[in-house]
Specification:
Layout (H helix, E strand, L loop, with lengths): L2 E7 L5 E9 L6 E19 L2 E19 L4 E16 L14 E16 L10 E11 L9 E14 L2 E11 L9 E3 L13 E3 L1 E15 L5 E16 L11 E12 L2 E10 L4 E7 L4
Antiparallel strand pairs: 1-2, 2-3, 3-4, 4-5, 5-6, 6-7, 7-8, 8-9, 9-12, 10-11, 12-13, 13-14, 14-15, 15-16
Length: 291
């Protein structure tokens, strides 16, 4: 039988999502899904390297997918996306382009997407064993309502091993415009992905991040509140570039963090202090998954 899934996130970048999921076979191997999503986030428009203009974007989209369940391993989805959005310039435009940048931009998005997920983590909040990976491809097409034709892909790989109370966790993010004229700009500068930098300091269309995280399970939460209490240390490398020809591993930005994490019934909660290679610190109170 079908299922209805509704989720919402609050905070700086609020999101609302609803999906109707309908199996097509008795074994629930094949399925169709229709979803709607509403987001509000900040996007950085490249003006002239290294200058970016900051826009606050409201976006709403509908997706229809055909999917294949891979048993307990994950799933594959292929579908069509159609959406509309409006971006508003935040603050003043950079002096280099103050006469050229519009204060409001309306846009359409339409195209094909593919998502593949393999999930073998024992716990998505604070994994102790296994691995998790996903690939998310989007191909904007004018024939499907997009502003122009372009491609982009993003991927993630995480793995965890544990001995007693000690866990080592590796996290890798990858972003690419696949040689196209993609208008989508990615950003890093978040907990365990360039923790020591703000999001507007690491932006671009190509690149990624890698982090090695050590977790020590300190104690248990009461069963009515959740699972474990963890202390963590991370070392991280990250950067993004506008063009693939600019990618240079010698130009990575390094960070480190110390954190206290709670695996609660409401999701993971982190209190963390991060530092970048220049010694500047950023404090986090983060509620939700970091990957």
């Amino acid at each position: 039988r079908g299922e209805l899934k509704v989720t919402a996130e609050v905070g700086e970048d609020p999101t609302a999502f609803a999906e109707i999921y309908q199996p097509l076979t008795l074994g629930q191997t094949w399925f169709v899904a229709a979803s709607v999503v509403r987001t509000r986030d900040t996007n950085l428009l490249p003006v002239e390297d290294p200058v970016f203009a900051k826009y606050r974007t409201d976006f709403a989209a509908m997706e229809v997918d055909l999917g294949l369940q891979l048993g307990r391993f994950g799933e594959l989805r292929f579908g069509v996306t159609r959406g509309v959005g409006r971006s508003r310039l935040q603050g003043e435009a950079p002096p280099e382009r103050s006469d050229e940048l519009p204060s409001v931009v309306d846009f359409d998005r339409g195209g094909l997407h593919f998502v593949g997920v393999l999930d073998q983590f024992d716990n998505m909040n604070f994994p102790r064993h296994g691995f998790f990976t996903f690939v998310d491809y989007f191909g904007s097409r004018e024939d499907l309502g997009g502003e122009l034709d372009y491609d982009r892909v993003l991927g993630f790989l995480g793995g965890a091993v544990t001995h007693g109370r000690h866990t080592a966790l590796g996290l890798v993010n990858v972003f690419s415009a696949l040689g196209s004229d993609s208008t989508e700009t990615f950003s890093l500068g978040r907990l365990f992905a360039g923790s020591g930098y703000r999001p507007d300091e690491i932006t671009g269309r190509y690149g990624g991040s890698a982090a090695l995280l050590y977790l020590l399970r300190l104690s248990n939460l009461p069963p009515t509140l959740g699972d474990g209490i963890y202390a963590g240390l991370s070392i991280e490398a990250a950067n993004l570039w506008q063009e693939s020809s600019q990618v240079d591993l010698g130009d990575l930005k390094y960070s480190a963090s110390i954190s206290l994490g709670l695996d609660t019934l409401f999701g993971p909660i982190y209190l963390a202090q991060a530092f970048n290679e220049d010694g500047r610190g950023i404090t986090y109170l983060f509620i939700g998954r970091t990957f």
